[in-house]
């Protein structure tokens, strides 16, 4: 295997260019990353399953395509990790649940199918809490995934394995999902980039725990252009998803460098989170957000206060009940199966079973009201910015798997509730831990959110600092 310096930190687009030009083989790249996973993943538990043989076979197939001069896809030869909520043909998919610890699907989810068609090499399945239902990545199949920057802390949830794998240099591309913050929160906590697509922009298919209103599938990366590329691969209509948009997505990569000159941006003053947010986190993120004026954006003199009363409770009703209908009702009807659930999963399903039709109807109405409120807010601005999370990543308590911390989702959950799009970009450190800036856009305006994210990425220049050094010093 040919040695390539710092290959683990290079972007997917740069790696693809090297593979296409013959400067690097996909097999060598895949072997290097697999070796890194073998050596280091025991420290953080980012993966549930790694498929070395199949990954190498897929890499060799790309190298053969290059040798034969065949056309290449946009991910040609680049390793991708898949959150273990989504089906991978012939590769174990557990959903983080003991009920499915030996489950091997006979087909791919639509996202995995599109990634394979684009030439992506599936490295393995990243860790997730059971059915993606907790803010820590603590399931029943693998040890809890820890934060690469400080292994006493959580990597976040529920796409914590995906974020930790990126932060540890286990690959440049990851597929995650987000119903209330599950892409954005671990991205902020682990210092990487994550994008929540708006409702229906990416189809939902071939996974566990999807809900009617939430659970968007999106890209997680260390590089904004990589996220735009992966989003372009997985977005687009699908006949089998009745909630999916039917229009073709724009070219996210082509528009990425267009800048945000003249774009109106406002700061979201989340007064509902003021009592349980860390002032150092909020001030660090706000200082990063002011960089937007250097890009030609027009920053509002007035902060925005969103009307989020009862949004958290209405989200709980819609999310928990829909997951109960999709998965929980059948599981809870079988006492032997119910006994295998994690405490947070069983408690959610039990609570969901008590919700009345009246309660569900009121939650649907509250969602409609909040969407109308956001539409009025966005008549005066093009983007909202805020912290992704108002605190640094919490220290894990292994003895408590039911605790709910409102501050974790106070900035992310309302955006999922409305079906808007948002990104979290690494924007600094507080007491040695990364924090994230959330960039919020209207539905189907992922291209604008990505353009803004790219401008912040260039201004903040945080891509050269990695947690491996901190881990090595502590070992």
UniProtKB/TrEMBL annotation:
InterPro entries: Amidase (IPR000120), Amidase_CS (IPR020556), Amidase_dom (IPR023631), AS_sf (IPR036928)
Pfam family, one: Amidase
Segments passing through the bilayer: none
Gene3D superfamilies documented for this protein: Amidase signature (AS) domain (3.90.1300.10)
SUPFAM superfamilies on file: Amidase signature (AS) enzymes
Domain Amidase residues, every copy: 28-450
GO molecular function term, any single one: catalytic activity
Role this protein plays: Hydrolyzes indole-3-acetamide (IAM) into indole-3-acetic acid (IAA).
Membership in a protein family: Belongs to the amidase family.
Name this protein carries in UniProt: Indoleacetamide hydrolase
Lineage, uppermost ranks: Bacteria, Pseudomonadati, Pseudomonadota, Alphaproteobacteria, Hyphomicrobiales
């Amino acid at each position: 295997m040919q040695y390539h310096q710092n290959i683990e930190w290079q972007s997917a687009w740069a790696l693809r260019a090297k593979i296409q030009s013959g400067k690097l083989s996909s097999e060598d790249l895949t072997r290097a990353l697999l070796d890194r996973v073998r050596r280091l993943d025991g420290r953080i538990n980012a993966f549930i399953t790694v498929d070395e043989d199949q990954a190498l076979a897929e890499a060799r197939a790309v190298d053969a395509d290059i040798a034969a001069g065949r056309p290449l896809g946009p991910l040609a030869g680049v390793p991708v990790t898949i959150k273990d909520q989504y089906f991978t043909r012939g590769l174990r998919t557990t959903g983080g649940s003991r009920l499915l610890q030996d489950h091997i699907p006979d087909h791919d989810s639509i996202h995995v199918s599109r990634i394979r068609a684009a030439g992506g090499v599936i490295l393995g399945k990243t860790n997730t809490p059971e059915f993606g239902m907790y803010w820590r990545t603590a399931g029943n199949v693998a040890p809890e995934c820890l934060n690469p920057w400080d292994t006493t802390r959580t990597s976040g949830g529920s796409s914590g394995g995906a974020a930790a794998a990126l932060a540890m240099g286990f690959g440049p591309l990851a597929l995650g999902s987000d119903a209330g913050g599950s892409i954005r929160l671990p991205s902020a906590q682990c210092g990487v980039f994550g994008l929540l697509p708006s409702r229906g922009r990416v189809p939902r298919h071939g996974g566990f725990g999807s809900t009617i209103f939430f659970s968007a599938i999106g890209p997680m990366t260390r590089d904004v252009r990589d996220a735009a590329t992966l989003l372009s691969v997985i977005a687009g209509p699908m006949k089998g998803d009745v909630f999916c948009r039917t229009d073709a997505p724009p070219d996210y990569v082509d528009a990425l460098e267009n800048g945000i000159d003249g774009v109106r941006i406002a700061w979201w003053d989340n007064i509902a989170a003021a009592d349980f947010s860390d002032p150092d986190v909020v001030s660090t993120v706000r200082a990063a957000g002011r960089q937007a004026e250097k890009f030609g954006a027009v920053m509002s003199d007035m902060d925005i206060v969103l009307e989020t009363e009862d949004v958290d409770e209405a989200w709980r009703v819609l999310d928990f009940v829909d997951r109960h209908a999709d998965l929980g009702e059948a599981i809870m009807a079988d006492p032997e199966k119910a006994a295998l659930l994690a405490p947070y999963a069983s408690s959610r399903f039990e609570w969901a079973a008590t919700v009345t039709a009246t309660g569900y109807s009121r939650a649907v109405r509250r969602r409609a009201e909040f969407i109308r409120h956001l539409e009025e807010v966005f008549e005066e601005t093009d983007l909202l910015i805020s912290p992704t999370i108002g605190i640094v990543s919490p220290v894990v308590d292994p003895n408590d798997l039911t605790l709910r911390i409102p501050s974790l989702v106070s900035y992310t959950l309302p955006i999922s509730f409305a079906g808007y799009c948002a990104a979290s970009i690494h924007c600094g450190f507080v007491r040695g831990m990364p924090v994230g800036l959330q960039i919020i856009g209207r539905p189907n305006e992922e291209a604008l959110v990505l353009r803004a994210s790219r401008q912040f990425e260039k201004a903040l220049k945080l891509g050269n600092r990695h947690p491996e050094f901190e881990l090595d010093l502590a070992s």
